[in-house]
């Protein structure tokens, strides 16, 4: 597609429920990142995929968070036993290998609200 | 202490004004410096980038990096109402694939 697509754009869930957030990167982009942006804050790194593997998952806050990218394109961020503190905008970004540190394209994000 | 500090504003200026946005950082290993613009309910979009120290100009925008002071700036000349957005600074280390460290963002409103 023309840009990074994230679905759903908005998600409201009850505390304790499981949610999945989807990221469809730009075709051919091998690097994929997830960031979390809380209200009034800058994005914070969660995880980085190079191809199918998680090259850096040091930003995942705890074991309730997990992400996959089984075929090296679409990625899913999974959150178990959601808590109100998980409420934020979850941003996905992708980059084509060789474009350097500047070639990221961000999606519009999924706004997650845990009630 | 956060790695990157940025005054959140909000900043309100009249159309045509010169805007100065700034960030400070603590990690001297940062080598790549970027400014992103984020409109409401949209993802950040890259505006300017600089490697190491120096200045870079692109139209009405100028980015400056002073590594000795650990201070970066973005200047917007002849500001327009369409420049109203949140401006995020970001930086990262040498090497590709490293995570970006973002400031909190500065909210800018340009009044017609």
Helix-strand layout with pairing:
The complex is a heterodimer of chains A (115) and B (112).
Chain A: E1 5-7, E2 10-13, E3 19-24, E4 31-37, E5 44-50, E6 53-56, E7 65-68, E8 75-79, E9 88-95, E10 105-106, E11 110-114
Chain B: E1 4-6, E2 11-14, E3 19-25, E4 30-38, E5 45-51, E6 54-58, E7 61-66, E8 71-76, E9 85-93, E10 101-102, E11 106-111
Parallel strand pairs in B: 2-11
Antiparallel strand pairs in B: 1-3, 3-8, 4-5, 4-9, 6-7, 7-8, 9-10, 9-11
Question: Would you mind describing this structure in some detail?
Answer:
The complex is a heterodimer of chains A (115) and B (112). In chain A, the strands form two sheets. In chain A, strands 2, 4, 5, 6, 9, 10 and 11 form a seven-stranded mixed sheet that branches. Chain A has 115 residues and is mainly beta. Chain A has no helices and eleven strands. The mean pLDDT of chain A is 93. In chain B, 0% of the residues lie in helices and 57% in strands. With 112 residues, chain B is an all-beta fold. At the A-B interface, strand 4 and strand 5 of A face strand 5, strand 9 and strand 10 of B.
């Amino acid at each position: 597609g023309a840009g990074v697509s994230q679905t759903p754009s908005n998600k409201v869930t009850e505390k304790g429920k499981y949610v999945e957030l989807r990221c469809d990167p730009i075709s051919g982009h091998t690097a994929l990142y997830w960031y979390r942006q809380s209200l009034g804050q800058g994005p914070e790194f969660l995880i980085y995929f190079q191809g199918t593997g998680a090259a850096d998952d040091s930003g995942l806050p705890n074991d309730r968070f997990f992400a996959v990218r089984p075929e090296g394109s679409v990625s899913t961020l999974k959150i178990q036993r959601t808590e109100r503190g998980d409420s934020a905008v979850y941003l996905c970004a992708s980059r084509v290998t060789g474009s350097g540190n500047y070639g990221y394209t961000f999606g519009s994000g999924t706004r997650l609200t845990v009630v | 202490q956060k790695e990157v500090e940025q005054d959140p504003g909000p900043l309100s200026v009249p159309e045509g004004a010169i805007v100065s946005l700034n960030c400070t950082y603590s990690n001297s290993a940062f080598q790549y410096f970027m400014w992103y613009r984020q409109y409401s309910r949209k993802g950040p979009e890259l505006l300017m980038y600089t490697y190491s120290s120096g200045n870079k100009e692109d139209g009405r925008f100028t980015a400056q990096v002073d590594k000795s002071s650990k201070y970066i700036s973005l200047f917007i000349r002849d500001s327009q109402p369409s420049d109203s957005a949140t401006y995020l600074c970001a930086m990262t280390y040498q090497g590709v694939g490293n995570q970006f460290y973002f400031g909190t963002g500065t909210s800018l409103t340009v009044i017609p």
